[in-house]
Amino acid sequence: MQAGPENIAPSTEPTPSSESAAPSPLVAALQREHPEWIGEIINAFGETTIIVPREHIVDACSFLKTSPETRFDFLADICGADRGPEEEPRFEVNYHLFSTTKYHRVRLKVLLNEEDVHVPSVTGVWRTANWHERETFDMFGVIFDGHPDLRRILLPDDWQGHALRKDFPLRGYEPYSLK
Amino acid sequence: MSSATIPPQFEIVDRPLDTQMTISMGPQHPSTHGVLRLELVLDGEMVVKSTPDIGYLHTGMEKLFEYKKYQQGIVITDRMDYLNPLGNNLAYVMAAEKLLGLEIPERAQTIRVLMCELQRIASHLVWLGTHALDIGAMTVFFYCFREREKILNLIEAASGGRLTPSYFRIGGLMMDLPAGFENRCKQFLNDFPAAVDEFHKLLTGNKIFQRRTQGIGRISAEDAIDWGLSGPCLRGSGVNIDIRRANPYSSYEQYDFEVPLEPDGDVWARYMVRMREMKESHKISTQALARLRPGSVKADAPKVVLPDREAMKSHMDALIHHFLIVAEGFDVPAGEVYFPIEASKGELGVYMKSDGGAKPSRVHFRGPSFVNLSVLPVMAEGEMVADIVAIIGSLDIVLGEIDR
Q1: Confidence (pLDDT) at B17
Q2: A10, B226: Cβ pair inside 8 Å?
Q3: Chain B residues with CB-CB distance to A under 8 A?
Q4: Cα B280 to the chain's mean position, in Å?
Q5: B128 Cβ partners below 8 Å, 6+ apart?
Q6: How much is the mean pLDDT over chain B?
Q7: pLDDT in tens, A17-74
Q8: Which of A53, B126, B174, B380 has the largest count of CB atoms under 10 Å?
């Protein structure tokens, strides 16, 4: 596994070959036990990103949380990103993990097509995922299957559209009113 | 009189009422620190369930970042956690610097640490004043704001802005510290420990304050980690995590300071952590001030950092660079970073994604207040309505950062 040329966010820093030959200890356990959960590994800017197929995201999260080598017991953040309406896959969901004992960090990434924006929820792994997933749903319309309370969080309940999608306008001329 | 002599029909028992009532607390409630609405299900005075309702201050800042050049984004960050604007500036500029691969001169790093620690003290002072005010101790508020005013004056002297400084720039600082700043800062730092002792005298030994805070809003260390609590709230549960130690940035590894820990996980523990943190911040500021050496405060990157005014008058290339940076911005290499810092309220993380242009493709702020507030229902369950106010105060939330 290494940062390939199809790397979706190509870094200008060339990835040293030694780094791709010897995987970082963060991903070694995952690679050894469940290589099928890894789509791709990107090392850039001193950060490690693992692209995970969405059907394995919950398994990969619980594995990284409990494995003695990684111990990612703290979910720092979940955030969505939109690459633009013409891109395929269009949406990303980024999970930023942190270990309170080993102090290391990793990013997991799930890629989604526009037609099928469903991801399994990780609220069963970390309860803090609740509000992060609600925010991502609110802003990007990504649906987290199995979330206990998937409602809008920042925008009003009857808001139309998802504000952080690239095709949502920055300015609007329709005044918002409570109907 | 011992309890044995009280006739049984007059004994006080905690008997829940059979009816539940749902009430709305906020968004204009003064003790919700902004526009937070809580939906409370009450059984008598006991909280059965609380549901925070947020978004009243949502201004679409993350959307706005995508339409602004990197250097224009700095002023937006000031308005998120408006009690800790320099911390927000730092997280944002350091994320961009990580993408650009910039080396920041030592003097700029030291000034950043100094200003951030002063800002942390100012933020904690607002927390202390309002927290005490919520619980009923009004005097503390005035003393806190008197001290905070001195820090705001220092920040104003350096940056020109009191609440929205935008002092840090991608590649360094807006400008060097003004003449006489060090002396004024030294004077403040000399006086400050006495002020903290004064706060301790006003509150820490106060029986009413102790009764209102001890054993209230308890959360265990495991739950705190699982719920993503960070900063003083996490350390109030005895978890030794401080990003300045865990993932040092801006040369924090070179400073000698302690990470205050309290094991109890209640409102009192979070109070004590912040009180002790002010002393630690004072210690770091003193060290930073002593470390200041003459030098440049801007990185050597002419395509990113604005040139000096004098250079523009004599060098054609400086003038061209200035024009290009202002008119077109600078391109940032494609990629994505997550940069966490220890803000006054906890882990402030900036996720920045660039696709190679002069404007970011996505900027996301992991606000510590946002995550800390999500834990409120867990802490408030089974407590009294009046204690909700104490718990909110102990979380130290800023709605500007929650709603963004």
Answers
A1: 59
A2: no
A3: 54-55, 58, 60, 62-64, 66-67, 98-99, 101, 225-228, 239, 241, 246-247, 333-338, 340, 347, 349, 351, 353, 355, 361-362, 364, 366, 370-371, 374, 403-404
A4: 15
A5: B140, B144, B199, B203, B274, B275
A6: 89
A7: 334 444 567 777 777 778 788 888 888 888 888 899 888 899 889 988 888 888 888 9
A8: B380
Let me know: does A116 contact A103? Beta carbons within 8 Å. no
Q: What is the ipTM of this complex?
A: 0.85
Which residues lie closer than 8 Å to A98 by C-beta, 6 or more apart? A72, A74, A75, A76, A104, A105, B340, B347
Taking only the tens place, the pLDDT of each residue in B335-344 is 999 999 999 9
User: Is residue A50 a contact partner of residue A109, using CB atoms and an 8 Å limit?
Assistant: yes
CA atoms within 13 A on the CB side of B276: 15
Backbone dihedral angles phi then psi of residue B239, each to the nearest 5 degrees? -95, 125
pLDDT tens-digit profile of B283-321?
999 999 999 989 888 888 888 898 888 888 898 999 999
Q: Is B266 left (phi over 0), alpha (psi -120 to 50) or beta?
A: beta
Q: Confirm if B329 and B69 have CB atoms less than 8 A apart.
A: yes
Q: How many CB pairs under 8 A join A and B?
A: 111
Identify the CA nearest to A47 among candidates B89, B170, B349.
B349
DSSP codes of every residue in B241-274: --HHHHS--TTGGGS-------SS-SHHHHHHHH
B4 versus B77: the higher-pLDDT residue is B77
* pLDDT attached to residue B18: 65
Inter-chain touch A126–B226, beta carbons under 8 Å: yes
Q: Taking CB atoms and an 8 Å limit, are B366 and A77 in contact across chains?
A: yes
- Quick one: three-class SS letters along B163-220? CCCCCEECCEECCCCCCCHHHHHHHHHHHHHHHHHHHHHHHHCCHHHHHHHCCCCCCC
pLDDT, position A27: 78
Range in A37-41, B200-204, B313-317, B322-326 the model is least confident about = A37-41
Q: Are B81 and B88 in contact (CB under 8 A)?
A: yes
Say which of A81, A135, A163 has its CB closest to residue B63: A163
Q: What pLDDT, in 10s, does the model give residues A96-133?
A: 999 888 888 899 999 998 888 999 999 999 999 999 99
What would the pLDDT profile of A113-122 be if each residue is shown by its tens digit? 888 899 999 9
Q: What is the identity of the amino acid at B105?
A: P
- In angstroms, the CA B165 to CA B74 distance is 10
Alpha-carbon separation of residue B238 from A169, B233, B266, B271 (angstroms): 46, 9, 11, 13
Q: Helix and strand tally (H, E) in chain A?
A: 4, 7
Inspect the interface and report whether the beta carbons of B101 and A47 lie closer than 8 Å.
no
Closest by CA to B376, choosing from B7, B40, B113, B35, is B40
Closest by alpha carbon to A4, among A38, A46, A32, A55? A38
The chain B residue lying nearest A165, using CA atoms, is B63
Question: Residues 74-93, chain A: which have Cβ within 8 Å of B?
Answer: 74-77, 79, 81-83
Task: Find out whether A32 and A18 touch, Cβ atoms under 8 Å.
Answer: no
> Does the predicted model carry a pTM greater than 0.80?
yes
In DSSP terms, B346 is beta-bridged to B343
